[in-house]
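We emphasize that the prediction below concerns an isolated chain of 437 residues; any contacts that depend on oligomerization or on bound cofactors are therefore not represented. The input was used exactly as deposited, without trimming of termini.
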Amino acid sequence: MLRRTHYVAQLRDAEGRVVVSGWVHNIKDTGRLRFIWLRDHTGMAQVTVHKHRTSKAVLDVSEQLGNQDVIAVEGELVKERMAKVGSEIVPERIEVISSSERTLPIDLTGKAESNLDTRLDWRALDLRRPETLAIFKIQAKLVEGMESYLREEGFIQVFTPCLIGGTSEGGAEVFKTDYFGKEAYLRQDPQLHRQLLIVGGLDRIFDLGPNWRAEASHTPRHVCEHRGCAVELAFIEDERDTMWVEEKLVVASLRRAAEECEKELKLLKKEIRIPKTPFPELRFPDIYEILKDMGKEIPIGEDYDRESEVLLSQHVEEQYDSDFFFVNRFPSKFKPFYVMRVDGEPTWARSVDLIYKGLEQSSGGQREHRYAKIVQQLEEKGMNPEAMKWFTEPFKYGAPPHGGFCLGIERLTMALLGLDNIREAVLFPRTPERLLP
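Result of the prediction step, given as a token string:
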């Protein structure tokens, strides 16, 4: 087999003879010429077959090619290229590595749009569509920007368990599994283990990994398995310290994608607007008045709903010209036991959500680090303190004030690119109906 010397994107800086490998994206005949568009994950190149000047062996192979065949091409780069798509190669040898069946289960040309469920059934083929691949190349750069920022700021990457012996937030929205005859759960969030690492003396940490929620939800915003960038930091003054870190993280993430994904953004006809900092902050109970002025009345002390998120986003866009904003001080009765309440005003929690384009991106805030308060809040939530000793006991031995957040990677991708369904931002979505591929 011909050994590849260059990826397609590298051809811009190459000269002379090259070998490229990839998939046949399209073929076009114009009488004297045959154009073969070859695609790899970095882009597209044009292989130009001159029918009256090319060897019979190359011509014969080119006549047998079909879309999605896997090939390797050896040839000379054209200096004064006329190719409409990428660099141009005049082939001296074409090798068919693997042939594709001629009838495909989904359309990859863009001429006919397959429905999302069919595309997900055939995700391995769907990724060959440049538009689909562009989504995940942008997503990769978003995560790369997060990691770079966090490492530069002294955060240490950690790995927390996905299997746990108890629920982290209470409730029934967990997947149960058998663990050597005992009941175990897939984590809802690596929250509690991150806090134990803080107690252990790791001041600044982040964790990239999956989380699961057993919600029978069929909205375009929910999946049963999602990935997050979870951040925790110690010796904070209050929840605002976590907000300052998160907004800088978001800016670094978006900037990395904007700078390194120009081609992909152009293909998707999207632009990235780098937000100004600090992000606006809305707080309970003031939120009730804002919503009331917009025609939405919610009783004091109650949580808001999806419609409220959209209304608050409209308010922030009009008042602050921002797509991003924080919601702070949620009613504490709706928050998990580990969230710190406001001393003197226990109705409200130091709990923070980040909203982007009307969609919740993260939950976070300040955690309760005082042992007596943690146990008290456990009992108030109806949870068993004995069952949670694995988490609470270390707090007896000195714990600094700390907090953090978990930013959803797929939701950020969805909102940034204006996707209609979060499943488009997940390589292999897990939903109540979908467990394969």
